Amino acid sequence: MHEIRLFTPFNSRGTTFANRIVVSPMCQYRAVEGCVNAWHLAHHARFALGGVGGAVIEATAVERDGRISEGCLGLWDDGQVDGFRQLAGLYQGQGIPVGVQIGHAGRKGSSASPWDGAGPLASESPPRGWATVAPSAIAHAEGWPVPAGLDEAGIARIVASFAACARRAVSAGLDFIEVHGAHGYLLHEFLSPIANHRTDRYGGSFENRARFALEAAHAVRQAVPDTMPVWYRASCVDESAGGVTLDETIALARRLKGTGIDLIDCSAGGIRGPVARSVRPEAPGHQVPYAERIRREADIATMAVGLITEPAQADAIVSDGSADLVAMARELLADSNFAYRAACSLGHPAPHDVLPRNFGFFLARRNM
Description:
Layout: E1 10-12, E2 15-17, E3 21-23, H1 38-48, E4 54-61, E5 73-74, H2 81-92, E6 98-103, E7 133-134, E8 148-149, H3 152-171, E9 176-181, H4 186-191, H5 206-209, H6 211-223, E10 230-235, H7 246-259, E11 263-267, H8 288-298, E12 301-305, H9 311-319, E13 325-328, H10 330-334, H11 338-345, H12 357-364
Parallel strand pairs: 3-4, 3-13, 4-5, 4-6, 6-9, 7-8, 9-10, 10-11, 11-12, 12-13
Antiparallel strand pairs: 1-2
C-alpha cells in the first residue's frame, strides 16, 4: 500500500498533527463582547468529531476596538479565557491540536456582519461602532470612516496587546497561536504601501513597513513557551498595483522565521474590496503556488488554503511539496467529515480509524 501523504503526521515545534487537514479560522459573528457561547461550541464540535488533523479558532481580537465586528471573538480580557478553554477541550479530547488566530482589524474594524452587508457601522442610522486605527489616515474604501493614524505609542500598546492575548491563549490551554497578518487588517495594512503612507520608521521601505508585523510576531513568540508553535497568516499578494508582492512576502517569511515563527498560512487579498477575496477569479487551489514558493524559497513550513475541496487535490498539495498542511473552511462547513471521505476515496487501509471510535466502530460494520 502506497503512503497517503495527506494522512501522515506533521510536527510543528513538537506538536503532532495526526494528518494534514486543518480547520481554517472562520469568523462566526456570534460572540457577545468577545465571549465564546453555545454557537461556537456547536460549530467546533462538528469538526472535532470529523477526523481533522488540527484546527484554528476564528479571528480573535487582541483589543476590544480591534474587533472586525461586534460579533467577533476576543481575548483581551481574562474573563474570556474560560470559553476558549472549553473550545480547546472539544478538540483535545479527540487528540486534535487546536490554536487561535489573534489579530487587530485596524481600519476594517467596526463593520457589520457579511449578511448585513459588511459595511462600516459608522454609516448606519443611528451610527454605531467605534473609532478605528491604521498606519495612515486613509479610509479602507469610499464611504468608510477615516481611521486615526497610529503614533509609536499606539503601536507599542498594540504590540503589548498581542503578547497579553497570547498569554491568555496559553492560560486557556490552546496548543498553538496564529498571528493574523492578512486580509487587509492592521498588520497587513502596515506592510502594504496601499494603506501605509508613513514617512517614519514604520513606513516607506520594505524593512520599515514590515517592522510592526515582526514586532508583533516577536512579542507573541516571547510570551509563550518555547515548545508552543506560533504561525503567521499572510496575504501573500495584494494583486493591486503598488501593493504587496510575493517576493516581499517571501522576504517577510524569512524574517518571521528568524523571530521564531514556525509556519506561514498562505492566503491573499483584502487590502481592497471584500475581506479575503482574490482580485483574480478564484479557481481550485488558486493560492497554492504562494505556499509552494514561500516553502521553497524561505525554507519554512507552509499551509495552503483556498478552494481546496477534493481529496486527491488535497493529497497532491502535500505530496508534491507545495505545502505541509491544507486548511479548509467552506468545504468543512459542507462536509465536516471530509477527512473520512478523503480516507475512503484515497484508499486508506483503515478509513474508519480516522473518526472517533464511537463513530468508526459502527461505520466499519455498516456493510458487513
